[in-house]
């Protein structure tokens, strides 16, 4: 379960801490061996099993999503690279319809709103017009029911977002209808990163959109998605040797 919920970088940190604790127990309390060392690094396993959608797979999925809230939610998730909790905490005040952007400044976990997990997670993400139009439609639809306040959540009603249980239940329904391969909701972030990388976007921009604290985090997590430049290097060398 833990592999499904956290990034490879975070899993590596967990493994390092656990390994240090067991080494301490070996040295001072007679523990026979280090279970963390025997089990191996979480990161290696999580990188092997990274799952994401290609663009065509996302299109196949989103075409069957008929609920305006879910269509806007999953489209924003895919095209922004934001975390699920960051979108569930999003309020109408966080959307700039003139600049086509969303301001990520808080997150939700277990129905509690807290600051983002890191300083770099505070960020403004530009979105394509298609997604902004979906959010506008959602706002217009919500306004028909009740006067809209800026601190109301975008993906829910009034101050309460969609519950995680409801979100996952309906997500699984759309997965089944679309016939696309299942991925975790968190893996929409991997899908966004893959989409940007395939378009040739620099690691720095990918890191900024994902809210990574530095580019090395992005490269450590997604280096296997970047195409090899070895052939290009040799081509330059061959040209100089002519």
TrEMBL record:
Keywords: DNA recombination. Residues 48-235 form the Tyr recombinase domain. The keyword ATP-binding does not apply. InterPro entries: DNA_brk_join_enz, Integrase-like_cat_sf, Integrase_catalytic, Tyrosine_recombinase_XerCD. CDD domains: INT_ICEBs1_C_like (cd01189). SUPFAM superfamilies: DNA breaking-rejoining enzymes (SSF56349). GO terms for biological process: DNA integration; DNA recombination. The keyword Heme does not apply. It holds the Pfam family Phage_integrase. GO terms for molecular function: DNA binding. This is Site-specific integrase. It comes from Bacillus thuringiensis.
